[in-house]
Amino acid sequence: MKFYTDYIKEIEERKSEGLHPKPIDSGELLAEIIEQIKDLNNEHRSDSLKFLIYNVLPGTTSAAGVKAAFLKEIILGESVVEEITPEFAFELLSHMKGGPSIEVLLDLALADDEATAKQAAEVLKTQVFLYDADTDRLEAAFKAGNPIAKEILESYASAEFYTKLPAVPEEIKVVTYIAGEGDISTDLLSPGGEAHSRSDRELHGKCFISEQAQEEISELQAAHPDKRVMLIAEKGTMGVGSSRMSGINNVALWAGMQASPYVPFVNISPVVAGTNGISPIFLTTVGVTGGIGIDLKNWVKKVDADGKVVVDENGEPVLEQAYSVDTGTILTINTTDKKLYGEGNKELVDISSALTPQKVEFIRAGGSYAVVFGKKLQSLAASILGVEAAPVYAPSKEISHEGQGLTAVEKIFNRNVVGAPEGMVLHAGSDVRVKVNIVGSQDTTGLMTSQELEAMAATVISPTVDGAYQSGCHTASVWDKKAQANIPRLMSFMHNFGLITARDPKGEYHAMTDVIHKVLNDLTVDDWAIIIGGDSHTRMSKGVAFGADSGTVALALATGEATMPIPESVKVTFKGTMQDHMDFRDVVHATQAQMLQQFGGENVFQGRIIEVHIGTLLADQAFTFTDWTAEMKAKASICISQDETLIESLEIAKSRIQIMIDKGMDNDAKVLQGLIGRADKRIAEIKSGEKPALTPDTNAKYSAEFVVDLDKIVQPMIADPDVNNEDVSKRYTHDTIRQLDFYGGEKTVDLGFVGSCMVHKGDLKIVAQMLKNLEAQQGEVKFNAPLVVAAPTYNIIDELKAEGDWDILQKYSGFEFDDNAPKSTARTEYENMMYLERPGCNLCMGNQEKAEKGDTVMATSTRLFQGRVVADSDRKKGESLLASTPVVVLSAILGRIPNMEEYQAAVTGIKLTTFAPPIAELSA
Question: Regarding beta strands 271-274 and 228-234, do their DSSP bridges make them parallel or antiparallel, or are they unpaired?
Answer without folding.
Answer: parallel
